[in-house]
Write a structure and sequence with these properties.
Strand order of the largest sheet: 1-4-8-7
Oligomer: single chain
Strand content: 5-15%
Structural class: alpha/beta
Number of helices: 10
Number of strands: 8
């Protein structure tokens, strides 16, 4: 991505090296996949994984002394520029629709963190907490993406942030709360399908952001879109379950298949129109 000269958002809280939280059941990234793939990346309500961890007897984790490397400094700057880009794009879109966009805070942490949704560790992956309207990210996750999923590249990283901001957009529009209420009243299978619809819409919103960011700043370079689509494919439920269990259980999908995630991200990238992101009206089989 071309980000030279771009502004950095100041709506960022740097908690690196000062985190304290409950461990997520003592599980690493692979363990989170085994317990529930939905919590590995771009997840559902983080309070759910926190509750699971408490039931499993997670212990306490204290932050260790943190020394910023040059790579970390560059990644931090990158994250603040991507966040600024989402602020610019969604503020304009909301304004065009007679609404006011209130940006989320980005909390950068190491190892563990306390959020408005409770404690979490880096093992739970990036997440959005609607209780404090913040996106939480341990930047080591970008390294995990390469190690666990074989995906890398700055647009793949930007997609992760933009997806979580997409959940914030859903929260501001009332979609997140409405769907979570429906999920609470539904069977597990229907609840999972509603979760897939939420996640695919957040993927679409990430694409909408990229469309407008590129239109405003010519930020996308050759290969960037492929990086994003490769990342979306790598984190499809079917691919993750196949890698983890050797088989798939479609009724347990909560984020969507690789094909679905790629399709909705690409649709957002192509149209740039938030109105085209209705993932709730189509039949589930048509997603």
């Amino acid at each position: 991505m071309q980000l030279e000269g771009r502004r950095q958002s100041t709506n960022v809280e740097d908690r690196r090296g000062s985190s304290t939280a409950k461990t997520v059941g003592g599980l690493g990234l692979g363990g989170i996949v085994i317990v529930g793939i939905i919590y590995m990346l771009l997840g559902r309500n983080p309070a759910e994984v926190i509750q699971m961890a408490n039931q499993m007897g997670g212990g306490s984790v204290s932050g260790t002394e943190y020394v910023e490397t040059e790579e970390d400094r560059q990644l931090f700057e990158f994250c603040t520029k991507i966040l600024a880009g989402t602020e610019d794009v969604w503020s304009a879109i909301f304004r065009q629709n007679g609404l006011t966009y209130v940006p989320p805070k980005l909390v950068i942490f190491t190892d563990a963190v306390q959020s408005g949704c409770g404690g979490a560790t880096s093992s739970s992956g990036p997440f959005y907490c609607s209780a404090d309207q913040s996106v939480y990210l341990d930047m080591s996750f970008f390294k995990d993406m390469k190690r666990q999923f074989g995906t890398t590249g700055d647009f793949a990283w930007a997609y992760v942030i933009a997806h979580e901001v997409g959940h914030h957009v859903q929260n501001l529009l009332g979609t997140l709360d409405k769907v979570h209420q429906q999920m609470a009243r539904s069977s597990q299978t229907v609840s999972n399908q509603l979760s897939v619809r939420l996640e695919l819409q957040a993927d679409f919103y990430a694409g909408v952001w990229a469309y407008h960011d590129n239109k405003n700043y010519h930020s996308l370079e050759d290969g960037d879109i492929k990086e994003g689509l490769d990342a979306a494919s790598a984190i499809g439920d079917d691919r993750l379950q196949k890698q983890t269990y050797g088989r798939t259980v479609p009724d347990s999908f909560t984020h969507g298949t690789s094909a679905q995630r790629m399709r909705w991200l690409k649709k957002g990238l192509t149209t740039g129109n938030p109105a085209d992101g209705d993932t709730f009206s189509p039949a589930y089989s048509a997603l």
